[in-house]
Amino acid sequence: MKKRLLIVIILLLIIGIALIAKTKFFKNDFRYAGTLEATKVDLSARLSAVIDRMDVREGDHVKAKQLVVALSC
């Protein structure tokens, strides 16, 4: 009986210490970080032309239907 009580008390202390450490060291929610890289992207135009301007650079975020390159015809 005394062994079980001692084990329960030790477990409660360990849980209490873990909760205190979590609130002290991990105040913010953890957010995952990472990088998504494309090694090759083929862009093709419907006609032959020279690039007039590029609206994005390497590493920029691109949305759907966003203009990436303007061609001078």
Strand content: 5-15%
What does the radius of gyration come to?
29 Å
Taking pLDDT < 50 over at least 5 consecutive residues as the criterion, the unreliable ranges are none
Number of helices: 1
Largest sheet: 2 strands, antiparallel
Structural class: alpha+beta
Task: Report the end-to-end length measured between terminal Cα atoms.
Answer: 89 Å
Q: What's the rounded overall pLDDT mean? A: 83
The number of E-state strands comes to 2
Task: Describe, in plain words, how this protein is organized in 3D.
The protein has 73 residues and is α+β, with helices and mostly antiparallel strands. The protein is built from 1 helix and 2 strands. Strands 1-2 form a two-stranded antiparallel ribbon. It is rod-shaped and about 90 Å long. The relative contact order is 0.11. The mean pLDDT is 83.
In short:
This protein is of the alpha+beta class and 73 residues long. The protein is 33% helix and 12% strand.
Structural descriptors:
73 residues; alpha+beta; two-stranded antiparallel ribbon
List the helices and strands and how they pair.
Elements: H1 2-25, E1 50-54, E2 69-72
Antiparallel strand pairs: 1-2
